[in-house]
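Z., the sequence and structure:
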Amino acid sequence: MYKIGLDIGGTKCAVILGEVNGSDIKFIGKSFFTTIKDNSYKTTLSKTEDEINELISDAKLKISDISSIGISCGGPLDSKKGVIMSPPNLIGWDDVHIVEHFENKYKIRTILENDANACALAEWKFGAAKDKNLKNVIFLTFGTGFGAGLILDGKLYSGTNGMAGEIGHIRAERFGPVGYGKAGSFEGFCSGGGIAQIARTKLLELFQTGQKASFCGSIGDIDKITAKDVADAAKNGDELALEIYNTAGEYLGYSLSLLIDLLNPEMIIIGSIYKRCEDLLKTCCEKIIKKEALAYSLSVCKIAPAVLGDDIGLYAALALE
């Protein structure tokens, strides 16, 4: 069964042609390109169509050989209606009827799902939860955004209109870094952009008091700082960088405690930044969870990094059915 997968992100997009046979996936061809920042989704969709056509041609297949197109994208979106609704990381993607667009274009069944939900399916079927017979699994994105995909009682739970699991929008503090359009939200503390915001604030405090930072040369360089810059410095022992990641780890712990108490999962799988920086986040995160979560619920819940790596978005798009 040949499938096309689209992983649409705020930073980059991926197109994948895969052959799916039960729990086995073979990547036949894949293509990546930077998300086009022109405030118009149409340019990106046109580029996506070019990549689809090229992948099918290179594989010596026809469009009629493709059984479905799966689209993984950051929310908010309505998976039931196939509509992307103004995601904060995709400026200009307002009320985009993307399922209708591709079904009209290719006459192929198309499925749209929140990226956290799609990644939850992928890690459940093919990744960290594979072959464990688990029925209650949560996947957390921890990259450009911060959201949860929920596998409850053995099936994906997406809510009334596909908006379940948006823990990143919950306000953790009255003030703080902005994520998901809300200051002090969990996404503000637990995302790449959020970590960079925390770093910029801390660096400004540092420079204004005449101090220096190992990972930022001057006050004029503050706006260039990324979460990766901070992580690299933290892994080299920089105290300020470690403090920033400790903060992110603590708020990650608070968010996980909420999920553990509310949903009583068997496993929580965390991707992206947590996967790459588990050594910087885990200790503070676990300290908060042990303090905040119900002991009985925590005793049956394992917290693990995602195992599908940088290709998780590709697996996610192909996992949709």
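The chain has a mean pLDDT of 93. Residues 179 and 188 are 4 Å apart (CA to CA).

Let me know what you think.
H.
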